[in-house]
């Protein structure tokens, strides 16, 4: 879906930010935030069929790009606003960014989180110096409460994306990226509410008008894409990319995207998982689902990017360790490097030892064995074992199955590890 033509009244109206605002933000942030690396990735490039350069926004202290916008907003506050304090609503990266930099600047911060927020996120945000208020069963409930609290206590509300200062701060990532890699043909950026891509697109198009800017949404939350197309917004569901699971684009960010972004694409959960897995195994880099969305889009449509130099923004790395472990295991299964075989054996002494010997001789490493005599509808003098194995690849798995069957052990590949 391409950006609409610029001959409408809306497209001729001034945007909320310009390249000058992004440059002003960069001046404010200079020396206070590190320049994040722009790193070439030969192995990912080989996989995708294009030249990939990664912008590692997951290397910020709190693990995401959100620090840019939060700090730019906080630095813009007057003395009275600083004394009064700030408030934000977030269950994730924005909460940590506001808490961290408010504490650094000596500003009192309150973060409203939905009641379902995991305790580890609450604890982490409090450790960064914020007062945390848990309220509501949804993000909308928490946002409404935060707005009410801001009015009652005279606090400045720091929006996660729908604020010109926030978008300008996020746009500083594009200044750094194009300085490090000025020959990029395409810039691929995740989209939630639109603050990151809005700011980056404004800066990128001003610096290099011919660059193509592509935004990426998870398929379950295509709010920006739907809004650009004039469709009713319909989204929801469980996604690994919760950082971009936003149900409505911002009033500030939507025009930025409409004017400066060339296309908005969607990626599904399998591709998002693959991108997290590829970054971890090929680049040795931890990314959250939202942070891997830009790479997911490149892997999803290699023909589009073939032969081009593509800037991929890794927007964050705050993935739950349990989710990361599951993604890594599922990736191993998908590659045929971790499998479960169901093997039929005679219920007699030495049978299990023979199976183990055959598997070992064939180069498989046994991880787990489950011995079943009473279930799986097997004859009384037979048993079945489920064996979880580390293997080399899918061809190796087929060789193992053939070897076991040739040795008199009926064997089948199960679709799940457990």
Concise description?
The protein is of the alpha/beta class and 418 residues long. Helix content is 44%, strand content 18%.
Assign the CATH class of the largest domain. Alpha Beta
CATH fold assignment of the largest domain: Rossmann fold
Question: Distance N terminus to C terminus?
Answer: 40 Å
Count of discrete structural domains = 3
Helix content: 40-55%
Mind explaining what this structure looks like?
The chain is an alpha/beta fold. The chain folds into 3 domains: 9-64 and 163-330, Rossmann fold (3-Layer(aba) Sandwich); 86-154, 3-Layer(aba) Sandwich (Rossmann fold); 336-414, ACT domain (Alpha-Beta Plaits). 44% of the residues lie in helices and 18% in strands. The protein has 18 helices and 14 strands. The strands form 3 sheets. It has a 6-stranded mixed beta sheet with strand order 1-2-10-7-8-9, with helices on both faces.
Task: Give the key terms.
14 strands; Alpha-Beta Plaits; 44% helix; disordered N terminus; 4-stranded parallel sheet; 6-stranded mixed sheet; 18% strand; single chain; Threonine dehydratase; 3 domains; 418 residues; alpha/beta; Rossmann fold
Task: Annotate the secondary structure layout.
Layout: H1 9-12, H2 19-29, E1 38-40, H3 42-48, E2 51-56, H4 66-75, H5 79-84, E3 86-89, H6 93-104, E4 109-113, H7 119-127, E5 131-134, H8 139-153, E6 156-157, H9 164-180, E7 186-190, H10 195-207, E8 212-218, H11 223-228, H12 253-260, E9 263-267, H13 269-282, H14 293-300, H15 302-305, E10 309-314, H16 321-334, E11 338-346, H17 351-361, E12 365-372, E13 382-390, H18 394-406, E14 411-414
Parallel strand pairs: 2-10, 3-4, 3-6, 4-5, 7-8, 7-10, 8-9
Antiparallel strand pairs: 1-2, 11-13, 11-14, 12-13
Helix pairs in contact: 2-9, 4-6, 4-9, 9-10, 10-12, 13-14, 13-16
Keywords: Lyase, Pyridoxal phosphate
EC number: 4.3.1.19
Protein name: Threonine dehydratase
């Amino acid at each position: 879906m391409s950006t609409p033509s610029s001959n409408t009244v809306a497209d001729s109206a001034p945007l909320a930010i310009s390249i000058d605002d992004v440059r002003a933000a960069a001046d404010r942030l200079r020396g206070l935030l590190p320049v994040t690396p722009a790193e070439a990735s030969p192995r990912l490039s080989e996989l995708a069929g294009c030249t990939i350069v990664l912008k590692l926004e997951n290397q910020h202290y709190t693990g995401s790009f959100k620090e840019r916008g939060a700090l730019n907003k906080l630095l813009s506050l007057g003395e009275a606003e600083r004394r009064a304090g700030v408030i934000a609503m977030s269950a994730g990266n924005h909460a940590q960014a506001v808490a961290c930099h408010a504490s650094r600047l000596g500003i009192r911060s309150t973060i409203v989180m939905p009641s379902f927020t995991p305790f580890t996120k609450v604890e982490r945000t409090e450790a960064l110096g914020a007062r945390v208020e848990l309220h509501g069963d949804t993000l909308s409930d928490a946002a409404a409460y935060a707005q009410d609290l801001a009015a009652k206590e005279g606090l400045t509300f720091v929006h996660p994306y729908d604020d010109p200062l926030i978008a300008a701060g996020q746009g500083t990532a594009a200044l750094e990226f194009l300085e490090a890699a000025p020959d990029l043909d395409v810039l691929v950026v995740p989209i939630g509410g639109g603050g990151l891509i809005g700011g980056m697109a404004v800066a990128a198009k001003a610096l290099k008008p011919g660059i193509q800017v592509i935004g990426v949404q998870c398929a379950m939350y295509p709010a920006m894409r739907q809004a650009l197309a004039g469709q009713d917004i319909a989204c929801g569901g469980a996604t690994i990319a919760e950082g971009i699971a936003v149900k409505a684009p911002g009033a500030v960010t939507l025009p930025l995207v409409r004017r400066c972004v060339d296309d908005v694409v969607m990626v599904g959960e399998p591709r998002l998982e693959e991108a997290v897995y590829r970054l971890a195994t090929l680049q040795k880099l931890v990314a959250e689902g939202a942070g891997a969305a830009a790479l997911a889009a490149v892997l999803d449509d290699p023909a589009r990017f073939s032969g081009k130099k593509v800037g991929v923004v890794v927007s964050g790395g705050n993935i739950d360790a349990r989710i990361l472990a599951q993604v890594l295991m599922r990736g191993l299964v998908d590659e045929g490097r971790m499998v479960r075989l169901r093997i039929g054996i005679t219920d007699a002494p030495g049978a299990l030892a023979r199976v183990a010997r055959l598997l070992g001789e064939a180069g498989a490493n046994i991880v787990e064995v489950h011995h079943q005599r009473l279930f799986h509808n097997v004859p009384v003098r037979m048993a079945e074992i489920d064996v979880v194995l580390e293997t080399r690849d899918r061809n190796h798995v087929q060789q193992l199955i053939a070897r076991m069957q040739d040795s008199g052990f009926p064997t089948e590949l199960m679709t799940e590890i457990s």
